[in-house]
Design goal:
Helices cover 57% and strands 17% of the residues. It has 99 residues and is α+β, with helices and mostly antiparallel strands. Strands 1-2-3 form a three-stranded antiparallel β-sheet. A hairpin with a 4-residue loop joins strand 2 (36-41) and strand 3 (46-50).
Length: 99
């Protein structure tokens, strides 16, 4: 009977994780950093990048720093949303060996 209960809980968790993935994928985050615009979903999949023409007048190193900083900000925001969604799904679950 215990095995059946565990299998049922695993199926329920799988369903919840699939739903969470759908929500994360559909949640779009727009980030603008010093003119660089990035669109990313909460699964941390980058959707678009727009670099303003005037930035191309700068030195290569500055362009790289600005673009990387924009990507980092987008990644951090996506990660924060992903963490919150995971907490909602996982709740107070206890995993053997991790308690």
């Amino acid at each position: 009977m215990e095995l059946f209960k565990m299998a049922k809980e695993a199926m329920s968790m799988r369903s919840k994780l699939n739903e969470m993935n759908k929500r994360l994928k559909s949640q779009v985050i727009d980030v603008e950093y010093k003119g660089v615009k990035i669109e990313v979903n909460a699964k941390n999949e980058f959707l678009s990048l727009n670099i303003p023409e005037e930035l191309f007048k700068e030195k290569k190193e500055k362009i790289e720093k600005v673009v990387l900083a924009a990507f980092e900000e987008a990644r951090e925001k996506a990660q924060a949303i992903m963490t919150e969604e995971s907490k909602k799904v996982m709740g107070n679950m206890k995993f053997p060996g991790l308690n």
